[in-house]
Amino acid sequence: MITFKEILNKVVFEEVWDKLIEYYPNMNRKNSTKRKYLTVFESLLSKDPAKNVEEMIIHIDEVNSDASLHEDDVEYRVHGKNNSSEWDGYWDISANHWEEWLGFYIDHKVLERFSSEQIAALCLYEMTWFGFSEELNHE
Q: If you count Cβ atoms within 10 Å of the first and of the last residue's Cβ in the chain, which end, N or C, has fewer?
């Protein structure tokens, strides 16, 4: 199975940024946001992935936005699933350590449906939900 780190190694930041602002157009209004995502992206490239002992698999699903007046507006939910005996649902992985994210596998259906740039953009957005510093995610 392919890992998130392998996805990141295949993409160029500018193309990932294009997908980020396509999915989340409001973020393009702040120049500092692009720099923050670039810093995270470069940081991830320099890290080694943690061993995926839980065999976590990243899933990406489309969900219709309740907040939108347009029926065709789609949002994406990024979450994890594994073979845990504790829980057979999906895990919120937004606060996982970034090294763990790098070792997570990408679901085969996600690989069929999304480009590497799309996967990288959606995962970067999810993993920075609490901020652009890994420390913010774990306070």
A: C
How many residues make up the chain in this entry? 139
Chain centroid to CA 126 = 5
**Spatial distance between the Cα atoms of 27 and 49, rounded to a whole number of angstroms:** 28
Residue 132, number of CB atoms within 10 A of its CB: 17
Q: Is 127 exposed, middle or buried (0-12, 13-18, 19+ CB in 10 A)?
A: buried
In the chain, domain spans: 4-137
Interhelix angle for 31-46 vs 116-127, to 10°? Answer: 100
23 C-beta neighbours (distance < 10 Å), count: 15
Residue 111 has pLDDT above 90, yes or no: yes
Please state, in angstroms and rounded to a whole number, the distance separating the CA atoms of residues 19 and 16.
5
pLDDT-derived band of residue 27, with 50, 70 and 90 as boundaries?
A: confident
